[in-house]
Amino acid sequence: MNLDAQQRIGFIGAGNMAFGIAKGMLSGNVLPANIKVSAPSSMNLGRFQELGISVTHSNTEVVCGSDVVFVAVKPHMIPRVLIEVSQHITKKQIIVSVAAGVTLAMLEELLPENSIVIRLMPNLPCLVQEGALLFALGTNAKGADGALLLSLLHCCGLVEEVPETWIDVHTGLSGSGVAFGAGKLLRDSGKHPAQLRAEVCTPGGTTIYGLHTLEQGGVRASVMSAVESATQRARDLGKK
Ligand SMILES: NC(=O)c1ccc[n+]([C@@H]2O[C@H](COP(=O)([O-])OP(=O)(O)OC[C@H]3O[C@@H](n4cnc5c(N)ncnc54)[C@H](OP(=O)(O)O)[C@@H]3O)[C@@H](O)[C@H]2O)c1
């Protein structure tokens, strides 16, 4: 049996990013029966259940039943969640955080000594297997742990191990980049562009800060004016 299919995968947090990764993984060898997701409310759990994934309100249940645990809550929730589950984490499990801006050092500080930690920066096109995912290994993570993660995520898109210093750059470029326009996601999701944009904008997160800067620079007006100018130029050239 394939190694991926034997792994028990947990997600703490059932938001847009957790769903994107889970959906991407299911297009590989990971089985829905081997995934469990937790969130405090039932608001986001239905879409996981529709994929055959089991759900719970208990983060501890997810940790105790998983070999690889993705922590996919908002960055400010990370300390609270890790402290809550810390006593149940073993040295065999791999803890993968997707939280923007939360460093390996911060994660290792919050987790029991010698925990295997990986910092992953995914993006929402994982949903349509077109993601760009970078990860950095923590102090106790070995090459084999990275290889396992890579194998689990390969159907989410391009996945690469990098030095941690690259992760923040990737967050600005690709984690947030989707909000600035992603054709396949738009075409395949059937969603309105404004809805997709909202899904990648974690309130108070990196993407909304980037969008604020774009709006300050008048990006929409610039794009409209650019199309108008080019159209006008084409008309003018046609008259000559
Ligand atoms: N969205 C992106 O494109 C993107 C890209 C790269 C990285 N990230 C990172 O991914 C993380 C999640 O972002 P998101 O956009 O998926 O956020 P989100 O859609 O707001 O989802 C957050 C999830 O966390 C759950 N949650 C809140 N408190 C919790 C607790 N105490 N225990 C367990 N779960 C809890 C929420 O539960 P309810 O369902 O009950 O509300 C919700 O399901 C963030 O750290 C962000 O930096 C996001």
UniProtKB/TrEMBL annotation:
SUPFAM superfamilies: 6-phosphogluconate dehydrogenase C-terminal domain-like (SSF48179), NAD(P)-binding Rossmann-fold domains (SSF51735). NADP(+) binds at residues 12-17, 72-75. It catalyses: L-proline + NADP(+) = (S)-1-pyrroline-5-carboxylate + NADPH + 2 H(+); L-proline + NAD(+) = (S)-1-pyrroline-5-carboxylate + NADH + 2 H(+). It is an enzyme of class 1 (oxidoreductase). Residues 8-101 form the Pyrroline-5-carboxylate reductase catalytic N-terminal domain. GO terms for molecular function: pyrroline-5-carboxylate reductase activity. NADPH binds at residue 59. Its EC number is 1.5.1.2. It comes from the Eukaryota. Keywords: Amino-acid biosynthesis, NADP, Oxidoreductase, Proline biosynthesis. Residues 181-237 form the Pyrroline-5-carboxylate reductase dimerisation domain. One of its GO terms (biological process) is L-proline biosynthetic process. Pathway: Amino-acid biosynthesis; L-proline biosynthesis; L-proline from L-glutamate 5-semialdehyde: step 1/1. Homodecamer; composed of 5 homodimers. Oxidoreductase that catalyzes the last step in proline biosynthesis, which corresponds to the reduction of pyrroline-5-carboxylate (P5C) to L-proline using NAD(P)H. Proline is synthesized from either glutamate or ornithine; both are converted to P5C, and then to proline via pyrroline-5-carboxylate reductases (PYCRs). PYCR3 is exclusively linked to the biosynthesis of proline from ornithine. Belongs to the pyrroline-5-carboxylate reductase family. This is Pyrroline-5-carboxylate reductase 3. It comes from Xiphophorus couchianus.
